[in-house]
User: Fold Murein biosynthesis integral membrane protein MurJ from Microbacterium terregens.
Amino acid sequence: MTGIGRASVLIGAGTIVSRLSGFLRAVVLVSAVGATTGAGNAFAIANQLPNNIYAIISTGLLTAVIVPQIVKAASHEDGGRAFVSKLFTLGTVVLLAVATLATICAPWLVQLYAPGFPPAQQALATAFAYWCLPQILFYGLYALVGEALNARRVYGPFTWAPIVNNVVSIAGFLLFIMLFGSDVAVDAWTPEMIALLAGTATLAIVVQAVILLMFWRRTGLHVRPDFRWRGVGLDQLGRLAGWTFLMVVAGQLAGLVQSRVLSEAAQDYPGVLVSQNAWLLFMLPYSIIVLSIGTPYFTQLSEHAAGGRDDDVRGDVGRSIRTLGVFIVIATAALAAAAVPASRIFTDSRDEAVAAAAVLLCFLVSLIPLAVLFVIQRTFYAYNDTRTPFFFTLLQCSLVVLTALIASTLPVEYIAAGIALGQSFASIVQVILATWLLQRRLGGLRVGSWMLSLGRFALAAVPAAAAGWLTFLLLGGVDGWTVSDKLLGALGAALIGVVSLAVYAGFLALLRAPELGPAMRLARRVLPGGR
Assistant:
């Protein structure tokens, strides 16, 4: 448990810095292109395309399949060198081919994802895409190396490398503002402007991948190019990845429908970029809390599952959900109370902040269920079962598509919020089904124990959220200083969060929550000078 605690703190600290620098990157980007402008949405679509491929790699093949396989390969006579060499050679060849093909197909990809863009906006998005799509290769290498490091319990570099990415991006976007100004009209973009903005985004991903490669020695593996892809279990890897690939394709198709609907949102209303930034806010607590705590648990859980120790796996599931829950519940409450000032960070006016806050609140409905899903889904992966997750994810994707189509019938100002709420509903249904299926497989998950804990956390979160909202109102509400500026929005959101957290901790103490002590110790270890 001590090893997991140390790893969680290392990942959590890196993730906090990474996300904060990512926030600054998003703020500078919005300052350069605007939050609800044609150019801003065009860049958002173009830069989303390589991220979609990265999602396939990181949340699909790698997390689901490769970590457990590398853990198993460590028991081979060569420590897994042959397996990893073949795997990395194959992965690099595939990534290079996909990146090349995607770049050639940039005009068709933009048309596919954003049919609602006017011709000038589509042309600009296509120009951006030519610069952005080569990111696929470097995103993939970063994910491949990072998951290999995680499998060898080297957690830090994978978390800290994105900070360099953000620094490079911020510098490039600031240079753009200095040279060309901000909020440039769609038809006023020159090739030099496009190259600087989109080229900066791609250069940042290249640097991120190179930084991570510098830490490869810590794995203890000496990898060489090996094009003989048979003989070390890659056939099993292919069978496992088949279901995962289908699952991720289903997710990408659902995301495609959402993107096409969002492209119909008119300028000056929440669209692609506003939704992406709302998702960035939503992912802040998920990344800091769920990934930092859950990733080390997943490695341990994979080892217990590989050893057939089902009772230990049940214990891992319950402990990780309770540990995640004590933090993720208050994060949900605090972020909901601070939704407007937090959204102001990524918008250019009070009205835009209020509209963006509605999108954020709709996403937040599913934050707690997604934390539970993280543990449940990866437990299936630990047992090399990618088939079952495909089916419950297919249901979620079907609901996402259905709700996105329903959202397309709403007035234009509510389309983005409708899509976000539909996605949350689909995720809640997904986690209920996934938990039921895992309980059947393991012969019981002791759901009652960790549901009781989540209920206790929720009970304490109600007054915490109320205190945070009251703080927002006392500071002037929508007309107050917390919504008057990007920086003041960040300060206001932080203040509301501190108030909510203090009330939450107080009520957990009154309820004598047994999870409070371990949570406080873990939190102190993250703080500067903590132990």
